[in-house]
């Protein structure tokens, strides 16, 4: 029994010593990390640096570890970043520079960060960008959301760019050139929402065979060509809400067998053409609210489709008639054929 107790005490002592040495090593590691962390920034795990002090004016070169793989500079007064700045972090794979005061970028910005996959420039004051600025072999995700960009340039990218995610939402774009998208054949997610787009070029999306999510919400689109999405057969989410769409081609969705979400709310649609939703999978979800639906004989297709696919329509009870006067605010799905003028009364037939 005595031997057992002594062994147990030795085990406890060894465990205590192990924990003490571990804590001491961690403390020393944290101190070393603190010494190598830039002013006005916080460092985590030796590879992630976050700088979010509003008093920060300059790129935090001093103290930035060359092993940094994730760098976030957000909500600061930073107004300039160069290739020389980024060269001190050659292992960088994620760079977030959002909500700062950047007005321009140098064309060679990314030359010293060959492993960079993610670049987020949300919420700056970028207007014009130079050629080749994003001609970077490893870049997969580019976010330029909420800047002041009025025009995009195909020369930003190299041919056959590896980009899979592009977010240009919240800018001032009036068009998107086909030449730019032709350089992005691997694109899976494209966000052009909340710009000033009035139309899409007929072949704009032609080369985006891998596109899965397309966001065109919050623009000024009035119409779409029948072949707009013909080549985007992997499309699963399509956002068309908050535009000025007045009518849609019957074949607009033809071939989009993977489509799971379609938002058409807050447009100027009065009816959907016959056949528009034919061959849709049961997994499709839609929002149709906020349109001035005219409940006459042209509403026959949508009314019948809604009756069979109630579970597919989000806010179904809010899909209501804007006219004629006698049917205002009536739920479309509740209308009868006679109310739509599809059945002649006995009195008229006689």
UniProtKB/TrEMBL annotation:
Residues 1-25 form the signal peptide. This is Leucine-rich alpha-2-glycoprotein-like. The keyword Ribonucleoprotein does not apply. InterPro entries: Leu-rich_rpt, Leu-rich_rpt_typical-subtyp, LRR_dom_sf, LRR_TM_domain-containing. One of its GO terms (cellular component) is plasma membrane. SMART domains: LRR_BAC (SM00364), LRR_TYP (SM00369). It holds the Pfam family LRR_8. The keyword Oxidoreductase does not apply. Keywords: Leucine-rich repeat, Repeat, Signal.
